[in-house]
Amino acid sequence: MDANSDPTNPTRDTGDSIGGRIRRYRHERQLNLSQLAEHASVSKGYLSALENDPKARRPSAETLYAIAQALGVTMSDLLGRKLLPAASTEIPASLREFADEQGLPEADVRMLSAIQFRGEPPRTKERWRYIYIAIRTSEALDG
Most CB atoms closer than 10 Å: which of 25, 40, 58, 89? Predict the structure, then answer.
């Protein structure tokens, strides 16, 4: 049996599976299956299946969160995905000017502040007005 096919070998190739990442983080934290199962409140058998059976049922979000917490990582780490950057909380001056003139609710201002076209927010209050009107007009399409 080679190192890659030996399920007891923590250095074997774990690929890009959730189970492989769970195993890697578990070994990095020097936890055995029983310890992780206890900390995450999931069964040892289910954890073993996740780590070793590519056809194992994928964990629910609640279970994945519990495992991530027990390992001290994020759900994104276990899923192998990068977190989306947080939307900028900065309100462009042109948007603030438009919002103040129109008396827009702060929730609408925050929503608009996340809009970018080709990597940049609109630069003039006229463009903000056009976008806002387009969004408000499109509400009628929802029925």
Answer: 40
Task: From 49, 63, 61, 66, select the one nearest 7 (Cα to Cα).
Answer: 49
User: What is the C-alpha to C-alpha distance for residues 25 and 11, in angstroms, rounded to an integer?
Assistant: 12
Burial of residue 46, with CB atoms counted within 10 A of its CB: 0-12 exposed, 13-18 middle, 19 or more buried = middle
- In this prediction, residues 18-43 reach a mean pLDDT of 94
Separation between Cα atoms, residue 104 and residue 101, nearest integer Å: 8
Average pLDDT for 67-73: 91
Task: State the average pLDDT for the chain.
Answer: 83
Closest CA to 14 of 43, 45, 53, 47: 53
Report d(CA 4, CA 26) in Å as an integer. 18
3-state secondary structure of 9: coil
CA–CA distance from 125 to each of 99, 105, 118, 133, 138 (Å)? 9, 16, 18, 12, 20
Token pair 């917490």 is found at 69
